[in-house]
Amino acid sequence: MAERHYTRQLATIISIDAVGFSRLMGIDDERAVAAFEERRDIITDSCGAFGGRTFGVAGDSIMAEFGTPIEALRAAFDFQDRIMALNALAAEEMRMPFRAGINTGDVIVREGRLYGDDVNIAARLQEFAPHDGLAISETTWHHVKDKTAAVFTDLGEFMLKNIALPVRVLIAGRGGNGAAMAASLAAIPAAPGHYKPLPKGPPAIAVLPFHGNGSEPDIGYMADGVAEDIIYGLSNTRWLSVIAKGSSFQFRDDGLGTRLIGNALGARYIVSGTLTGLGGQIRLNASLTDTSNGRLVWSQRFDRDLVDIFSLRDQIGSEIVSILDKEVDRAEQVRTFQVPWESLETWQLVRRGRWHMNRRTRKDTEIALEFFDKAYQEDPNSSAVLNELAWWYFWRAWLRFGDSDDLDKVEAFARKALLMDSLDARPHAYLGAADIMRGLPASAAEHLAEAIHINPSFAFARSAMGSARLLLGDAAGAIPFFLDTERLSPFDLYRFHNLGELAAAYCFVEDWPAAIAVADRSLNLSPGYFYARFLKIGALIRSGRRDEAERELAIFATRHPDFSEQRIRWIPFADAAKNNFLIANFDQAKTIA
């Protein structure tokens, strides 16, 4: 086997990356490639002028090698200044900024290629750099700090992927850009002297100020208002730690990168968005990013007519809060599978249990209880654990048509949770749900009103309030609560139940087409849900659609051979005439079968 020859040497490496290259390729791939090649030539020229050489060009990334750190820094400033000037002349949507990372250390050289941890560190540092910005390692900084007028901002130490030891990261800037960058970075809370992992416990989420664009007046004010409403709403979920507005609103520069901002704020998740107003309409683009890996967890566009600004803010803000609560919960459920069972913290045991509950099988619900019980043993005073146990027993009571022992446990756990945290909406909602199943809709409505007051984005509480109104005989008043639930939680796991309740409300106001359509939507989500099909059959016969009613009745008989009208009589309407009304509709269909 031929001997491989290589040498070792001290070198300074620049890792350079085009920002937003994939986005530009999606707009116009030929123009994007031409723009990249034009800027790559500038980079090659600047590096050569300062004694460096480029190597390892791959996709939209470039590497360069220098003999001295100061020349590498000067080259980086030079090509970034030239690229910024070129971008200023380009159409805004086709501008292509570059960011760079510089590290100095020992490298292996073989056939013109460079290898080693110090090459990899340069590539990792580039990820911390702002758009048109430059991140350097402490090693490089020691060589250049007294030889340049550059401004340096210390971000602290970070553990970099596949690098054994922490690396101190600094942002470098010069001239007008450097001063502006230093001013922007000065707002960042002081970075720790040594790398510290995120604190134990539930993850923190930060909501950055939303950007406002467009010709509509006060659009910037409204953008900030929506972000403020989201901060307030998320704080009411209670299980998430929310970074205060005074800290997160310092980050109006979206070029700093989510990883840098997340580390500075101690937040695992970042919420950002842009609000555009034009011609009496607004469009909000919102997104959720996991700062630990830079991945986009969720994004959505909201289009609305611009009418009453304050009601519009409330509507959009509450929708986003409800979605974010579930998206972060989902992401954290998945994350628990990266942690050994014996190492799970109490809050992680809760998330793992929720994952099993969401699968809705008998075996999984049993496993979920095991996780909740273990969490309870570790921390019997945790409101998060108490709430999950209350929910688990409520779910089983619902399956058992109001098992009194299970409802007693719901009440016990919910009341203890309230002692731990009186501003948590969940215990109020579970007490209300238990009262519904006990046939006490008026008492339930009081608990649920309190839950909605505390957390207006709590979809379960709104759906349960609709059910309480329905049981009290106010079908017309119940419908808005069910519709609000649809708006707040359009992908809810238990949406089939909310739609079933909405179908019942439409039956009582004798809007038969709406009842049929909504029952169909419920059955699309859960074909085995007997109540939705029961209501649909009655609505079909009342609409004169006999053939369809007969077909649905045949399906019902096959799926639910043990059905008796006692299931409907069990529903605790305040007026038994409501039960009789639904049963009569169904019986009318049976007479034609």
UniProtKB/TrEMBL annotation:
* Superkingdom, natural source: Bacteria
Q: Guanylate cyclase domain: which residues?
A: 12-126
Question: Which protein, by its recorded name, is this?
Answer: Adenylate/guanylate cyclase domain-containing protein
The organism is: Mesorhizobium dulcispinae
